[in-house]
Structures are given as structure tokens and as C-alpha cells.
Amino acid sequence: KADHHSPRVKPIDPLKDINAIVAALDAGIISRSGAVRGENGNPEQVQAERAKDKTEDERLGLNVVPQAPTH
């Protein structure tokens, strides 16, 4: 399976963009994989990195809770 990713355009208002993605995820109109693809990312790679981060955090006894962006 080939995926094409165009070059990422630098956002004008990154916080607004992230808030829009979070709202779409919360509303159930996009998936996490779709959100990652929309940012020109690879969902499988992101998932693997998140799993690795979680394992490392647990090993170190860290309790890292993702925070939603604030307006």
C-alpha cells in the first residue's frame, strides 16, 4: 500500500488547528488515524511511538496525562 503525503504547510494558527482536530475527534466525525493522516503522519508509526512512550513512562514510574490544548 502506497501513501502519498504532500509537504506540510506551516499553520497560521496552530492552536486553532489542533482545537479543530480535537473537536472533530470528540464529535466522532474523524478517527485518530484520520487525524494523523490529515497531518501527513503515519498512523501505524504514531501508534507504535505512543505505545513505546507509554511503556517507558510506566518503567520510569511517570504518570503522564495528555492535556487538551487551551484556547
How would you summarize the topology of this molecule?
Layout: H1 14-27, H2 32-38, H3 43-60
Total E-strand runs: 0
Distance between the termini: 38 Å
Radius of gyration over alpha carbons? Answer: 14 Å
Query: Are there runs of 5+ residues with pLDDT below 50, and where?
Result: none
- Reading the helices and strands in chain order gives HHH
The share of residues in helices is: 40-55%
Largest sheet: none
- How large is the share of residues in beta strands? under 5%
Kindly report the average pLDDT value: 88
SS class:
mainly alpha
Count of discrete alpha- or pi-helical segments spanning 4 or more residues = 3
| Cα shape | globular
How is this structure best described in words?
This protein is mainly α and 71 residues long. The chain is built from 3 helices and no strands. The N and C termini lie far apart (38 Å).
List the keywords.
mainly alpha, 55% helix, 3 helices, 71 residues
Short description:
The protein is mainly α. It contains three helices and no strands.
